[in-house]
Amino acid sequence: MMLTRPRRPDYDTKRAFLVRAAARAARARPTVVETHSAVVVMAGPHAWKMKKPVRLPFADLTTATARAHLCREELRLNRELAGPDVYLGLTAITQADDGTLALDGEGLVVEALVLMRRLDARRMLAARLDAGPAPTLDEVEALADRLVAFYRRAVRPPAAAAHYLDRWSHTGRVNSAHLAAMQPWLGPAFSPAFVRHAPGLVTRCRAEIVARAGAGLIVEGHGDLRPEHICLENPPVVFDRLEFDPDLRLADPFEECAYLGIECARFGAGWIGMALMERLASAGMAPPSRTLMCAYGVNRLLTRARLAIDHLRDTAPRAPARWPREARRYLLLARSIAQGAGVSGW
């Protein structure tokens, strides 16, 4: 008689199993964090990250093969920045012939996972900014030194300037289309002309960007450098580097650090961005012009506004009241930066 394999578990079944397995392994109740593309289950000294079977604008995660590939990429890329003591390796949910699920057990691999060392939530930069104690200058300079070392050894792709400019242009078109479609939730914070013309700020700086790429100042950076992705251990840990697309990681170090500074300024700690950029300059990296810094800041903030309001496109968005507020705040901040730099014309 031919035996048939049990049906593969769906996402909800695997998620529920992972929560139970983490609780058993740590003998403690897990903490579960959800993002658009993944669920992270933290228990005891470990964290397990499982990617969701979703289709995103920049990646299709609907197949187990694609998710496994991105787990491998996440491990490779983040070990370059956070190190192997944080990104411990790959593991998997397996299914035995009788349908039983296990962590790294016998049988068929049904879902790849990234295994990490659990970081102290109280030491996250976002938590320190929000609830204290406030980050110290020594901690921020240690973070800057970690980033300087990373940027010095980062990949400098061929044709970096062309890819970087194309990325900004494409992102600008997506921002404009999505924000316009979501205008009813954005109110007067949304200016169609401002959003439409913002990518041109980068285009006007084409010659400077080409020169910066030629000087090795357009690199494969982090891609999403925010306070949520920094833990102020000693030495500091920078994690959750984007794995989806190398073009999304292309960055000018000053652009990444300035955006991190903008996010810190929300908590009254705008000095952090200035300290980071001063450290980059003192390490021999030439800062961009004021015009280019304005272009970077405006377009980064418009992207954050679009990503925030795009949560409402989900079938069942988490905390739906939150996203219009965040999007409006980013839109107003983008316009404030442009006005502060004397940019007009719309």
Q: Into how many domains do the coordinates divide?
A: 2
Q: Please identify, by name, the CATH architecture of the largest domain.
A: Alpha-Beta Complex
Contiguous uncertain segments of 5+ residues: none
Instruction: Specify the CATH class of the largest domain.
Output: Alpha Beta
Task: Report mean pLDDT, rounded to a whole number.
Answer: 93
Descriptive report:
The chain is of the alpha+beta class and 346 residues long. The chain folds into 2 domains: 11-118, no CATH class; 125-340, Alpha-Beta Complex (Aminoglycoside 3'-phosphotransferase, Chain: A, domain 2), CATH 3.90.1200. It has helices at 11-26, 64-81, 125-131, 137-153, 160-181, 183-186, 192-203, 206-214, 246-249, 253-265, 271-282, 290-309, 322-340; strands at residues 31-34, 38-43, 46-51, 55-56, 59-60, 87-95, 101-103, 108-117, 219-220, 230-231, 237-238, 250-251. The strands form 4 sheets. Strands 1-2-3-8-6-7 form a 6-stranded antiparallel sheet, with helices on both faces. The chain has a two-stranded antiparallel ribbon with strand order 4-5. A two-stranded antiparallel ribbon has the order 9-12. Strand 2 (38-43) and strand 3 form a beta hairpin. The longest helix is centred in the middle third of the chain and has 22 residues, at 160-181. The N and C termini lie far apart (75 Å). It comes from Maritimibacter harenae. This is Aminoglycoside phosphotransferase family enzyme.
